[in-house]
Amino acid sequence: MDQAAVDQLRDKALRDLWNRTLGQVSTNFGRLAYLCSLRDANTGRYEHFGLAQIYSREEADQALRWSHAQTFGEWLNSPLAQQKTDLEDYLDNLEGGRQIVLQAWAVLKPYLNVIPVDASEAQRQLFITDLEIILDLLRSETSPSLPNPAA
Question: To bridge 13 with a disulfide, which of 37, 63, 136, 138 should be the other Cys (CB 3.0-4.6 Å)?
Fold first, then answer.
């Protein structure tokens, strides 16, 4: 298969992924969480049964990897206020309630998993710094009388 055909197939896989799945997720952080859930923690490969059935495991991996990097870049390039609103919308759709989730996140830090494997150290640090500022703000808004468990 020549490079043009490979590129066409990859683009079709990306369109399918965005039209059928990622486009249905209402928040950028939700897309990050979903994409990282498709990444094997031991190998770093992305696995999506439906995409792999239509295309191949490699093409599915590439489409998911690219989408994860793009979504992460969009998050990093968003203003802090927009990131905060997006994260609030994401948290409001989780079970358990915002206060419980924020308390668990302070200890477990599951948000570190949404960072793509290929992210640079500068991107990682920017993401962590911004997100922890937002989480501190949300914790103080949710329970202003409770001490910050991350401190």
Answer: 63
Q: Give residue-wise pLDDT tens across range 57-89.
A: 888 888 899 899 999 999 999 999 999 999 999
Which of 21, 17, 16, 65 is closest to 39 using CA atoms?
A: 65
- The letter for the amino acid at 14 is L
pTM: 0.82
